[in-house]
Structure formats: C-alpha cells, structure tokens
Specification:
The complex is a heterodimer of chains A (about 270) and B (about 450). By secondary structure, chain A is an all-alpha fold. Chain A is about 75% helix and about 0% strand. Chain A contains 14 helices and no strands. Chain A is flat and about 75 Å long. The mean pLDDT of chain A is about 90. By secondary structure, chain B is α+β, with helices and mostly antiparallel strands. Chain B contains 19 helices and 14 strands. In chain B, strands 1, 2, 3, 6, 12, 13 and 14 form a 7-stranded mixed β-sheet that branches. In chain B, β1, α2 and β2 (about 75-80) form a beta-alpha-beta unit. In chain B, α10 (about 235-245) crosses α19 (about 415-435). The model of chain B is unreliable at about 1-30 (pLDDT under 50). Classes of the chains: A mainly alpha (about 270), B alpha+beta (about 450). The interface between A and B is large, with 53 and 62 residues. Chain A: One of its GO terms (cellular component) is plasma membrane. Chain A: Belongs to the binding-protein-dependent transport system permease family. Chain A: Pfam families: BPD_transp_1. Chain A: It is found in: Cell membrane.
Amino acid sequence: MKSKKRSQLIWLYALLLFITVITVGPFFITLLISLKSANEGIYTVLFPTDPTLANFIDSFAKADFGLYFLNTVIVTGIAIPLNLIFCSLAAYPLARMDFRGRSVVLALIISTMMVPFQLYMAPLFQLAGELGLRNSHIGLVVMQVSTAFGIYLMRQAFLRIPKELEESAYLDGASKFKVWYLVAIPLVKPTLVTLAIFTFMGTWGDYLWPLLNSTESSMYTLSIGLAQLSQNFDGANLKLISAASILTTIPTLLIFIWLQKYFISGATDGAVKG
Amino acid sequence: MGKRSSKWITGVCFAALSVSLAGCGDDNSEESGGGDSGELSGEVTLWTASLAGEPFDTYFADLEAEFEEMHPDLDVKIEDIPQNEMEQKVLTSLTGDDVPDVVNLNPHYMSNIAAQGGLLGLNDLVSDETKSSYVEGPFNSGMYEDELYALPWYLTTTVSWYNSEHFDEAGVSELPTDTQGIYDTAKAVTEATGKPSYYPVINDGNTVMEKMVSLADGEPIVENGKAVFEDNEAIVEFFELTQKMYEEGLIPQETAEGSLATGQELYMAGNTSFLEGGVTFLGPIESGSPDVYEASKAGQPLESNEAPVNVAVMNFAIPAKTQNEDAAVALAEFLTNAENQLEFAKTAGTVLPATTESLEDDYFQNPGDSPKALGMLQASESLSRAEVLIPPTENSSDLRESTKNIFVQNLQGSLTPEEAVKQLAEEWNRAFEDSGEEVTF
C-alpha cells in the first residue's frame, strides 16, 4: 500500500517536473540565448561559455527601448486605474439596479467582445484623430479603458456580494454612489486585482493599436520596439531579440508573482455564479 | 479608508481628464504647400520600413539635414514602421487625415494600395530624365495598370548560399545549375554530413512561383490568364525531384512550413547546407552562428545562367491624400537619386541600388571578401537578368496560397508530381477566371 502511494507520488512529481520544463523551459532557453556573446553560436552549446549582458545594453540602444519602456509604463499606469473605475461603474448597475433593458445592455456589451479589432480599427483611428488623441498616451489606451470583459468580470463579482450589506448602508442613509465605493468596491478587491492584472497584460503587450495611432516613433511602446528588432532590415538578431523579450517580460512576471494570490481567487469569480 | 479611496478616485479622474484635454488641444494639422514663390514649404513626412537604429538613423539624419538645407522652409519628418504592418498602417491612415507624404513599400503592398486608389499616380509628376535613370526591371515594378506609382529604391536579387565546410566534406566543388544537379549535390552532401542538406524556400508560395518562372527559362507559365506549365519538363522535374528528396531525407521536414526564417535557423544550426535566398539572408547567421557565417559562400541561383532571376524591390510611393504633393515628389526623387542610392547601398552593405549610374560604381565590382560582400557581388552579376518575375495581380493571394498547399502536398507525397502540377494549373486557371485578369508571365 505504502509503495503504491510512493509510486503515485513519484509519477505526480515526474508530471509536475515535466510541466515545469515545458512551461519554464522556453523562457530559460531565451535567457541563455540572451546571455551569449557575439562570437558564440546560438545552437552550438546550451549554456553560454562567456556570459555577457551586452545584448541587453545593445537592445536598449538599437530600438530606443528606454523611451519605449517609459511610454509603456505611462500607458499602463493610465489604463489600469481607468479600466478599474469605468468597468466597476458600468458593472454595478448591471448587477444591482433594475432598469428596463438591463439584459439587452449586458448582451450588447458582451457581444462587442466578438467583434474583431480589424473591423473597427479604421473608424477608431478616425475618431481618435478627431478627438486629438493621435500621438498621445491617452490615445494609446482607448482600447484598454472600459473593456467588455472587465465589465462582465466586475458584474459577476458584484453579484456575489450579499444584498443585505448594501441594504443596511442604504438604511444608514448612504447614496447609491457611496454604497458602490464604500461597500461594494472593498468586497470585490480580489476581482479588481485580477482585472488590474488582465489590463496590465493587455496594455503592456498591445501592439497594433499603439502602432496605428502613433505617427511619431517617440510614442512607440515596447511591443513595437520588439517588432522593430525582429523585423530588422538585416534579419533578426536572435540574441538581441531574446534580451529584449526578457526585459519586456520581467515586469509582467513580477506583477503576476506579487499579485498571484488575489489573481487566482478573482479569476474564478466568473465561474461561480452566472 | 473611505476618504482615501474617494481622494484616489477623484485624483485619477482629474488626471485622465487633464490628459484628454491636453490631447484635444494638440493640433497636428499644419499648413503646407508649394508657397507663393514656388519654393517648397511646410511639412513632409516619410515612413521607412524596418530601418530603425544604426547605421540607418545617421544616414537618414544626414539626408534630412541636406534636404532641409536645399529647401529651408520645409520640415522633413522621418518615422520608421515595422515592415509587416506597413500596408495596414498606410491603408488605415488613408481613412483619416494623418497621412504620410512618402512611404517605403514593396511592389506587392504598392499594387494593393494603388488598386484601392490610395496612391498618387506619378506618370506626369516625374520627369522622363528621372524615369530613365532607373534600372528597367525595378522601375517597372512601380507600374500598376500603366500608371507609375512608385520610384525604385533598393534591390536584392536571388542568390544561392552554401556551407562551404559541408561541401568540402562531401567533395562538392561546384553549385548545381539544374534540378538534377540539386538532387546529386544534396545526396552527396547529406551522405557526408548525415543531415538533410537542401532547403527549398516556400514562404507563402511566392518563391515556388518565382522558381517555376526561372525554370521555364523564358517560356511563359501563364499566357493571357491561363496556366500553360503543365507540360513544362523542367517544372515537372522540379516537382518530381523535390518529392524524391523529401522522401529520401535530403530535404528537411521543416520545409513543409517553408519560411525563410526556418531556413535560416536550420542553416545556422548546421542542419541544412544550401538554399536560395536574398542577399540579406546572412544577417541572422552572422550574429547567431559566427562559425557558419564564416563558412558561408554565395553563388548564382541554382538554375541555368541565362534563366531570369527574381528581383525584390523596395520603393517609395506617395499616398493620394498627401497634403504636400510637390514636396513629396521632390523628396522621393531626392531619396532615389544615384548619389543617395549609392550611399544607402554602402550603408546597408547587402543591397543593390536601382539607378544605372550608382551600379557602375567600383564598390559593386569590389565589395570586399566577407561572406555578405560575396553575396552582393553575385547579386550584382545577376542583375542584368533580374526582373520582377510575378507581376502584381488581384488574385495573387489565391495563387500563392494554392501554390504553397499543392507544393507541400507534393513534397509529402499526398499527390504524385503529375497530379500536383495538373491540380496547380487548375487552381490558377480558376483564380484567373474569377478575377478576369489576362496576364502573361
């Protein structure tokens, strides 16, 4: 019996190890490639014989990564709070207020998730131009502010709050807005963190819209810098691309590791109650 | 806690509103035009394709300064766009008012945008003297339905690349000049190295189409919108022998994916030994595998020395909605004049210029002895027989897609070579019937 349990455990660990290798392996190989010196071949040996950080420095210089990094931080910093506020504000009435056409509004909002970006990018481009949002940080985040996914996620979270808590606040004379930000918002914190992480990932890696909306390269973001490296005139330098990819990915990883506890509890919110 | 949240929310809302209003106040529309005196003035924007970073930043900064010195009232702005998204970005910009004045396109993008009325016709805007300064084949690549839409800038032609160490190991001293020769060479090299040795690049099917035209050696493969290659022995042999090589392991299995990037990865890892590609093929090899780079040598394309070879052209076109037409034409002419093209070719180190005068420069006869320079030498030697082998057509994506699919099925043995060639001809005929185009190539 004991040996059966042990063998099961060994298989389980072997499976976990296999999954770890599959998921972490590519990232690890990318890191190794990024550390290889100019004279070393990518495929000759796995580990760099003469490790160097030169590729990280070169990638910064080659594609103006410092500026692109700053732009990306700014747009992400704008997108996250705006998306959290607008999604929470839009979701709360859909979860808690009775008004005619509520289900239609919700269905309409969710249906926008099915529309491919290519279908509305030209009108959006025109609109952004008319509003003076071209080549501005706020213009780069219009896609990430108040997303249908965020509204749906927040609505599901608000539905889980016991109504009694809100009712007692109303009895104490609180307005609807006060109930929203003093009672409801604190109770959906894990979902807010989840949405913040999703917004972070969406904004950090967004490519096509920032490229279309920027007619000045001083507004480019990291993903465009990566594309410039990989589509380089003289062919892709894999060592530079690996270094740039690592630099681009590190903030996402750090944020995820920092907030993963909330993320996992929040990500399952939508699945509990429909 | 409540007060803090409230302040935080108010702060963010205020910040967002401030940035929005600042954005609204940003007026990009600047008056531009020829001015009363005829002197160029205003702003002119140039979009280059995947030329960010050095040495190109310095090259363009110098050009910008020189052009602005020639036209003191003109402000030149140069931005770089990743090549793959250039077409989409130009088309999107044409729906609004933020349109560039000069854009760097390839003929495929150019014809597609021109077909939608997005480019300015240049027939009457460019002088005959300027038109005659360009090499004929590349110049013609800027034509679409008898109208000139782009001026040629730089070129690469197809050359062959091989790992000389692998060839030495196999005792092979010469590159093949026909498909049977490719088979014999691949067999010898694979026997020596134990690895697949020949990688036929497919990409999205375009390189197979170009290869077919080269193999036809002057005979058209499409005549007035009808495929006429079914009985072409060289093409049938190519399908037969590539299938045989794939079956015998002389061609790597990755060929089914067929991109040049995959070919580069295999080549730099020493897992393939020879292939045909552009002059810029060695770029990633130089950084990714210095040993293989040093062992690389270039030769003429793997077909007869008289066969036409493909030339890939990058050009400059002017969007139809340009706000500064005169300055845009002047800038496009300035960028593509002999002097600036020569300088660009020297800066890039792996491309050829598109003007006859710059090609006569000593640099192209003695570019040095690096592997890249050897490639450029081979490319300049084949330029006299180089042309755009596949003209831009409306149905080009259908042609390319069917070519790739059928060629891969042939490689994998799902079709016999005869069936593959027949089916390909049928697919092409259907595509031409649908589009009603009566082209010959």
